[in-house]
Structures
1.
Amino acid sequence: MFDKESGLLQGTLDLLVLKTLSWGPMHGYGIASWIEGATGDVLRVEEGSLYPALYRMARKGWIKGEWGVSENNRKAKYYQLTAEGRRQLREQTSGWERFAAAVTRAVGSTQAPAWAK
Amino acid sequence: MWRPFARRAGGRPFQRAPEAEVDDELAFHLEQREREYRARGLGAEAARAAALARFGDVGGVRRECAQLLEDDRRAAARRDWLGDLRQDLRYGVRSALRTPLFSLLAVLTLALGIGANAAVFGVVKSVLLDALPYADADRLVRVYAQFDASDMERSSISPGAATDLAGRLRSFAGVAAFNFTTFDVAYAAEGGARLLSGTAVTDGFFPTLGVRAALGRTLAGAADAAAAASVVMLSDAAWRREFGGEPGVIGRTLRIDRRSYEVVGVLPPGFVGPMGDADLFFPLDLRPVLRDPAAARDEHWLGVVGRLAPGVRIDAAQRETDRLAAELAREHPGTDRGRRFVVLPLRDAMVGETRTPLLVLMTSAALVLLIACANLAGALLSRTISRRKEFAVRVALGAGRGRLVRQLLTESTVLALAGGAAGVLLAALGLSVLRGLALPALPAYAELALDSGALLFTSLLAMATGLAFGVAPALAVSRANVQGTLRDETRGASEGRRSRRLRGVLVASQIALSLSLLVGAGLLVRSLGAMAGAPLGFDPDGVLTARVQLPQASYPTPERRAVVFRQLHERLAALPGVRGVASVTQIPSPTMSRNALTIEGVALDGDGPTFIPYMAVSDDYFRLMAIRLLQGRTFGAEDAPDAPPAIVISETMARRYWPKGGAVGARVRISPHTAERWGVVVGVVRDVRVDPALPTPEPMAYASNRQDDLWNGRDFLLRTRGDPLALVKPAQRELAALDPAVPLRNPTPLRAIVDERLAGRRLPVLLMTAFGALALLLASVGVYAMFASMAAAREREFGVRVALGSSRRAIAALVLRQGAAWMAVGLAGGAVGVVLVARLLRGLLYGVAPFDPVTLAAAVALLAACAAVALLAPVRRATRVDPITVLR
């Protein structure tokens, strides 16, 4: 259920990347930094998973990479959301919310099942 | 903050290897991380080590990402390719519309070439490629007799020989016999007498062909023939036409020629027998005939089909029938000597003489297409040269060569497809014309239709043509030297030597192909002229013919028939508008019956019986047909039934058998009429050609139909004032007054019959002439285009020459010399083509040698004249060059 390398729930990394890019175009390093910052350093993004994930999402047409110049005047590859990426973000967000709510409800349940009596 | 700096331009000129790109990206990441660690206070070394440690397996990630990127690019390239294709197509259509004259010419040229091919292919396919309407038709053969002493290559077979073929050969799994030709029968329909065509077939005819009844059953042969009630099968066409496709027809009794027949079955649609189209199939029982020795072996009226036994090849079957022929000659020396059997694939037998003309037409059509392609290649080449600068600019701006070549190919394919579409329309049109012209000349099973196969063939042809003639200009482009072109074009130099040579080769090949076609067409036209122009020996104009067949059942004796024929003769002669009446057993025709000839005291050439065309005629036949008497007399009242049989012979017969004269008074026998007693030659008349398509008349003999009265039917000939067809109705009334149950069969002007016999010959001539004209036109356009663009390309050079004092005459000579050289090459190539064409056509020629000097000279002169006309305008233009305008 959890990815071996990132320790993240499968698909979660994609969702986080999409969310990051919804703020605007960003390079890989920036994406990793933002996710760590936004999750209060709870989630540490493994670079070894991030880059293949970016390439895979580019192949799926969710994001698009283009070479640009970074704030410190270095050549960097910037990713931005495509229309399809935006749609994915909406869908995956609502999917995640339903999933998280369901897990929360089950984990916080106080009613014991019948066989436990 | 973020500025994109590398947008894709045109292709993907600035794309780097995937590994390099991934490296850059990862390097940036590591650098940023390192910078972060340094900001937190780590030393340079430590920060770098920490960044690498944090990243993990850099090499693995790099490999994985590079692989992903490469896959992504490949997919994108595929998407781009399609996008480019769309762009090319749009561009192709736009550029075609920008030069409407060129495009129209290109499309029309191609349409003509492709249309001609698709139409001819439609015919070829229906005749040569489509399956015969029989099961496993490749195993079916037709057996013909060939008599040493007769000119006919495919003769009918006697019942005795047919029975021996069926019973004594191991090479065949089945052998069946049928009436060699169809015959007419009168069917008493509710609305009056209807004329249907019939044939009779032995047992095993349908099983041998592998044909089952669509309704009811097939004939059971001898069992049916022996049964008390006669039976008959209907063809699908007759069933639909006469009985409205009513299934209840099975079991119904029909009155045919005054006898009753029960319908037992209907044949499947599309079935055609080897004897040709027939409405009715009667059972044929040979047993009674075989009991009569003369009828069994002396009368040859059967066609034979066979199915090869499994594993037997046709040459083995031929060898076995050869052995049988030798055995039969020993067993029946009186009747079966001097005859061999020919075993032919059934398809070849049914295709008949159509194969060679069709192959000739197919070749001609292909040649026309080649010329069309050469023309287009030349035109596209010129256009490419005039667009050289455009291409050079595009290459300089980063367009790949491959991309340009592809665009050119797309452009020519767009033209080819448009030409193909127009060609299909032309083909449909052409086929409907061909249907009218060709049907009498084609085998009965052929259905002319533009079918899916022909369409597929056409579209493939269109595509191939597009690619083929796109290649020449494309090659020229890919060789183009960008810098040189840009520089040259501004200076306006003449066209390169390479493209000039390519263009010259194209024109030369057009001239060569056109010459071959023209010579072929010329030879055929001269043959047809010889055929149509050679005297028939009789005057077919203004004569109406119609057949009267008296049913055996109502007119059992020769005397009864003679009375009716005489009465009809008198009634017809009394009709207003009739200048003369004659009757004859059969009008002269290529398929008329041939009878065995014996001459007293003369040993005839060859082994076995000699057959010659023979007919019994009324007294006025020779006068009515305008057949001149050369010696002795024709028939008259003195040739009464009991008088010695009188025979009139043709000039050729007199010359062949009495070379020293003395034919009149000689004694001859022509079976069966004078089988018992000698006839006497009383006169010699001029030759008549029974087959207008054959050059030399055959020997022929006539008897008086007062003396030879064995025949049930006669053709009546009415020489009329005015239109012969105006007498059809009155003649029908006169016959109906004598016997309303007997129909007047096939009333046709004699001229129409003669013409129809030439139709088969006329078709290839007409089409090949059309192809020749088309080729000439296309080649002229090609020559014109070559010189026009050549002159245009050298305009500046000519201007310089004029400015330097060259005379206009010298300029004209310059242009002409260049053109004449290529035309000479073309004519030389044409000489090779002419040899091939002459060989292909040899079998179709008549009265003209394959290397007919008149035809050759005419073709060369015609071609040269057309080329000269095509040259005129460009040469004039070249000499009118104004040095000042050009050099400015």
Note: Strands of chain A lie at 26-27, 63-69, 75-81.
2.
Amino acid sequence: MATVEEVKKLASLARIKVADAELEKFTKEFDAILAYVETISTVEIPQGEALRRGQTLRNVMRVDGEPHAPAMYTEKIAAQFSARKGDALVVKQIISHE
Amino acid sequence: MKKPNEMTIVEAARALRARDFSVRDLWDACSKAIEEKNPELHAYLEIFEADDVAIVAAQKRIDTEGEKAPLMCGIPLAIKDNILIEGKIASAASKMLANYRATYDATVIKKLKDAGALFLGRTNMDEFAMGSSTEHSAFGTTKNPHDIKRVPGGSSGGSATAVAAHLAIAALGSDTGGSVRQPASFTGLVGLKPTYGGVSRSGLIAMGSSLDQIGPLTKSVADTQILYEAIRGIDPLDSTTIPDGLYGTRELPKQLRIGVPRHLLGAGVNADVLVVFNTMLNKLAEAGHTLVDIELPTSAHALAAYYVIMPAEVSTNLARLDGIRYGLAAHGETLLDDYINSRTEGFGEETRRRILLGTFVLSSGYIDAYYRKADAARAVLRREYTDAFMKADVIAFPTTPSPAFLFGEKSDPLSMYLEDIFTVTANLTGMPAISVPMGLVERDGKKLPVGMHLTAPHQGESALFTLGSAVENV
């Protein structure tokens, strides 16, 4: 059911590459997994209220409080950046002004 | 007297207060054992330097507070590599985060630090918690101390081996589809997955956010209860955590009704595992508990539902790992290349497989048939369990269909997924579940432990501890 083309497309969506050498094996394994999880479509689902019985909604929003002190975590976070200039994260320019 | 590192939390806590040995002695005993055995077993990815300040503070606390000091004070623990300890690397056993230093403590770590517990190191796991054998770690495999040709289970295999080989008094793991309970079964330990929301996920590297829970791996049920009490609680940093009593309180009868879904225990389970299971059930019946037949029809589809929902959530959670703010950065020509190169190089094969699976089940044209259907099946399963809990206090079955398998035996991904067949339901329903050693089976002349799996209603951990103790003492 899953084709090499479909796997390539999914990989592109997920920002991942599957190497050409791996592609066929990967697709076969992927296909077998899909065939298994597809069985979920055979489950009978009762409609509406009966399904949500016993699950109530509750408010989990916290009360607005004081924010933490400014710059408390900045250095620790910036230390993890792959490329850094001061406290700023350096990335490739994607919008040019030419 | 047992060596300090071979003790349980209860025994070590008692010995510390009786001054049989000091906190430093206990730490040193664990360190020495790690030095001797970790090179072969590879339970730990990194062994931490002794935190002298913490050791001295823990000793002082025991000296001054004695019985009033928390039981976890001075106890050295192994921590799974996906739980953040500030300043330490947390890599989730992946190349993607190989050099990532945690910028904050996970809530469970903070609670343990407040109680005076100590951390020996970070343990090996399947990369991003994806696996049932720890074979998918980017940094090598971990061996099962009962038979070094066999896996310790996964994804918390490193934590399990650390405790089973007495390289720690106890450990924390994480459980999304069985990753604490299955390794517990394979290594002869007790492993608990708390009620969803019982323990904070703040500081746990996320895999499947509606499924994940941090849980203890220990040498006894009493230890599991102690460690669970130390880490649980509502947390403002995790809005999925729950207050006590949210699901009402249940009076537990002295004689428990043990529900057994016989229809699930057929050809798929190894015959000798079933024998051990039934033998234990009979012993529990002799001890006064009642066995009740129950039906959980949708359980047959639980694994399929899990392998739709979990990859979907994984694909979302791992989208943040793109080589920009943290993690491996493999640059290319364009920004898109940066993303693709970083993610392709940083993620192992199983991780990439599950991301693609998740991408598929969430994609337009398939989302209704797969993800939404699986989500609905999940609700049906939950209702079946709730109905079964009208007739039973605890539901029992074997934790795994077989004992620990050999390295490389489950190289086909689907065969690995089938390992989770019994454990995933507790993650799907959010109900608490425990694996307790129930006996031994033999493979290739080696005796291997297998666990009994007990599920209770939401916030019903006390039933698990009660029946778990009964299993231990029978």
Note: The CA atoms of residues 15 and 21 of chain A lie 18 Å apart.
